[in-house]
Amino acid sequence: MTDRFQAKDGREIVIREACPGDVPGIAELWKQLMDWLRQYDSRYGRTPDGHKIFAAIIADCIEKENSAVFVAETDERIVGYCICHLGSFPPWTVLAGKKNGSISDMAVAKDCRQKGIGHNLFRAAKEWFTARGACRIDVDGISTGNSATASFWRKMGLRQVSEGLAIEVGDLPSEH
Ligand SMILES: CC(C)(COP(=O)(O)OP(=O)(O)OC[C@H]1O[C@@H](n2cnc3c(N)ncnc32)[C@H](O)[C@@H]1OP(=O)(O)O)[C@@H](O)C(=O)NCCC(=O)NCCS
To answer: Which of 1, 5, 73, 87 is the most exposed place for a label (fewest CB within 10 A)?
Structure first.
């Protein structure tokens, strides 16, 4: 699948499924994403090799049938990505539910945000899930206080279905 659209600043953006050659560009964006998320949750501190390990995880998601990685590209640069997983709820087939989709990661490069790229990445993800029989798409773990991301997902039509609670215990991870 390949889609093209014109971003709000006039740039032509290509939305397509990722190939192995995209992995370094996605890993770079992942670093930006983790560093940005750390302002809301200190657990997002990266290890020196974290992006290399994450690169191997993305390569795996590109290969596997029950996952997909979509990228946004402009001028041969990866400016956004979205990782999709197809599973069942719960993970064991003991309930009658249909397939369940989840998005574990999504990021748009800082200089490309609010131009429609996130919306178009989500549209591609939604089509992929729907074509595979998913009846729901979950996005978990949006930190309280991250109102920009929450606004984005609400604009995409997602609604709050559960409430997560947590308590911090012990020492927080140190930054690298
Ligand atoms: C969340 C994110 C992926 C959105 O991507 P984007 O390309 O900026 O989003 P779009 O331009 O397609 O925005 C679509 C709609 O979302 C809403 N939205 C996007 N960014 C917003 C912001 N900062 N504040 C409020 N609403 C916002 C708007 O309603 C927008 O619609 P509009 O253009 O008609 O105003 C991007 O901001 C990002 O990478 N954030 C940091 C990483 C992150 O939080 N990822 C999600 C973790 S799962």
So the answer is: 1
